[in-house]
Amino acid sequence: MRKRAPLQAPSQTLRMKIRNKQKWQRSLSAIIDNQKWLAYLILAPVVILIFFMAYFPAIQSFRFSLMYYNTRLPERIHFVGLNNYIRILKDPLFLEALKRTAYFVVIAVGMILSISLVFSLVLNQNFKGRSILRALVILAWAIPPVVNGFMWKWLLSGDFGFLNGILYQFGLISSYKPWLKDPFMALNWATLTFVWRFTPFVTILLLGALQSIPLELYDSAKVDGAGARSCWWHITLPLLRPMLTIALIIIMIFSFTVFDEIYTLTGLDPATKTLMMYGYELAFEKGRFGIGSALAYVIGIFMFLITYFYIKSIYREVKY
Q1: Rounded to two decimals, what is the model's pTM?
Q2: Domain annotation covers residue 53
Q3: For 70-79, what is each residue's pLDDT tens digit?
């Protein structure tokens, strides 16, 4: 019989590999056992992704805002400090866009809150078909903003628009009207387009707040002789106020930064050129990334202030 060769001792290199592998395994086990480091390990990919998708472009945009950066004149790119911010604040077109944005926000906030409050009060009542109506209310919110803009553009078309067709059939107009050609009407139609899409979302928010109010409060008030008006002023409205505040700030944020609906409805028409539209025109239509980035940060400051009040309103407690 053949004799077996004696087992050879592992070489120095192999022993080092085994030792390093065991050391790595112990380190990994220690990280897994330590909940703090395990949380860091799980969050690391997400944090890295968010940094490169959000914060890195924001940092680059801030760098551009401090430079004269025109893609059509690459040889003239240079550092200008805060000059872009000073120029944008003195720009008459910026002031005009700010006025249009303020008008858009005020009208949108007032209409959405008013309509949503009425809808939510109606949907909070018991009647046949309430569940179906609640489901139908949210449909407008489910429509993408771009689709919503094109839909309203078709409705308001001066050549074949649905609105013109209805009014003409009923004899309310003698000829088709170009609704989006009039500057004042174009801005109002753009506002209505946003209101139509955003109202269902706020309606659901307010409806949820209404349903969270204990019914015992109304029963106790009725026992004390309170009527519907007293219940509204002393129970419903005070307990609904926190959600109204949150809804108000959400509407302000979205209406201040609306872009898709306006762009698909009227394009870069001066009549509907809000701050977001003006920033897009500066950066992507004219290639002036420096001053366009400065305008983006000015808008960001407005959004920061609105968000600050939004966060404060969230943590406001309501006592029954």
Answers
A1: 0.80
A2: no
A3: 888 888 888 9
